[in-house]
Write a structure and sequence with these properties.
The structure is a single chain. Helix content is about 50%, strand content about 5%. With about 500 residues, it is of the alpha/beta class. The protein folds into 3 domains: about 160 residues, 3-Layer(aba) Sandwich (Rossmann fold), CATH 3.40.50.620; about 120 residues, Serine Threonine Protein Phosphatase 5, Tetratricopeptide repeat, CATH 1.25.40; about 130 residues, DNA Cyclobutane Dipyrimidine Photolyase, subunit A, domain 3, CATH 1.10.579. The chain has a 6-stranded mixed beta sheet with strand order 1-6-5-2-3-4, with helices on both faces. Helix 12 runs antiparallel to helix 13, helix 17 packs across helix 19 and helix 18 runs antiparallel to helix 19. The structure holds flavin-adenine dinucleotide (FAD) and ligand FO1. Ligand FO1 binds next to strand 3 and helix 2. The site of flavin-adenine dinucleotide (FAD) has 28 residues, from helix 11, helix 13, helix 17 and helix 19.
Amino acid sequence: MTTAAADTSVQLGRIRVLKEAIITNQLPKPGPVVYWMFRDQRLRDNWALIHAVDQANKRNVPVAVAFNLFDRFLGAKARQLGFMLRGLQQLHLDFQQTLHIPFFLFQGEAIDTIPSFLEECGASLLVTDFSPLRQVRGWKEEIVKRVSDSVSIHEVDAHNVVPTWVASDKLEYGARTIRRKINNWLPAYLIEFPKLMPQSRKWGNPNQIIDWETLIENVLREGAEVPEIEWCKSGENAALETLMGTKGFLTIGLKNYSTDRNNPLKPKGLSGLSPYLHFGQISAQRCAIEAHKLRKVNPQAVGTFLEELIVRRELSDNFCYYQPHYDSLQGAWDWAQKTLMDHALDAREHLYTREQLEKAQTADLLWNASQLEMVHNGKMHGFMRMYWAKKILEWTTSPQEALEIAVYLNDKYHLDGRDPNGYVGCMWSICGIHDQGWRERPVFGKIRYMNYAGCKRKFDVDGYIAYVKRLVGDIKKRKGETLLNSKAKQLTSIQQLPVKKLT
Ligand code: FAD
Ligand code: FO1
């Protein structure tokens, strides 16, 4: 860390200088600070925002937030884009009303829009948040090349409790190897957030007016193939409510988390936080701080929850950050690649195409139910995700095909898809990453196996199938009613049109 980024209430280990401005004597007074927000879409508990405001105050310049809406973001559909934009719409209002920080939205490619905005406002510093995904890293590298010499760029890990590059400097074998490293850093990083400082200078240029309604309407129309879901309200307030509201996870679900989290019949046994964490509408650090406060009352449940929320989640970022092939067979360890290849030609009891799997047309009613839960409800239970992905390995022609199909379906239908956790979940299930070798068997080789009988021993399989059937039935019924209502509204408005007399 160089001195240029100092004078901030953010731990220096959380910040990386991607580019240092070249200071010359001819330069006029410094320009504003721009925070390019992408993964951490929130106002509260946001280290990147805190750093941007600190830096603006240090330079006595204003700060603005910029968001880039990509034309195509890894195949996202109405379900994910609608959720994200509704959250951003509230965020825009909050930025304007409570912090008086302008919020700019650009559409297109970030490698064009962000440098041109920096140029236009004469920025001196760009602050960005962090994602280990290759696309985002590629854009940042390009932006570093494109911006002028007078602009510095700081990257802040606002997503992880322990910044990815601090937790470990290499690809970890599994939870066992990263846990100790993360735990050693927790006293330094699992701390309360400082208060966001008031800005010393306000943005003088005009703010942007954003037509959110039209934007959302267009996005919903274009991505209509995978419609929005109703059960998960978007935004920071809804996220906090899900964590700690009167019916929130810490209030109700936490005490039985250690046992209920493996029962797909109890979706409320999980926190339901993954969509909010994925879009950064809540900080994992806030979730951890609040859960930690309850450790004396529920020590085991809090321990299990923090293991998932911190160790497992941050292990996923470690994998995607240090393994360039995080979503392909090449990213598996040698033993796993070998065993999968040894069994690639084994006879399969069933072979299904991607279309058959997508339509839940298999002979396994349990698998079909989990697929339908994901397609219609946008969130498959965590336990079923493992079974679901492992069965795809069993029923397709090769491990690579299985992985491609699993990632495709996961990202298309899950509200929390396109996340390091998703790539790692699929790689764990199909390629054994972060796992050990097991007794060798057909198709799976030494990759851990799961089957229907095992599920039957763990939970009420028929109950889960019936639960999903009801759930999907209710969703379809409500959709049908909404469609009828909107048609009826259209009819009424047509009937109310003034009738022009024929002359
Ligand atoms: P909770 O049990 O309440 O967990 C709280 C948080 O801890 C989660 O939101 C998540 O951030 C983290 N967490 C929990 N389990 C894991 C795990 N196994 N690995 C890493 N972090 C974890 N998670 C996603 O966020 N997006 C995905 O696209 C995704 N796809 C998956 C695909 C497969 C095949 C598998 C096996 C797992 C996948 N997971 C994914 C991980 C996990 O299943 C979900 O994070 C979890 O079910 C989300 O529900 P929750 O927030 O209610 O979970
Ligand atoms: N982030 C953006 O900055 N712009 C987008 O247009 C955008 C779309 C998007 C769609 C689906 C989705 O799951 C995430 C999306 N994100 C977007 C968020 C973010 O960039 C990602 O969550 C991270 O890259 C994940 O590490």
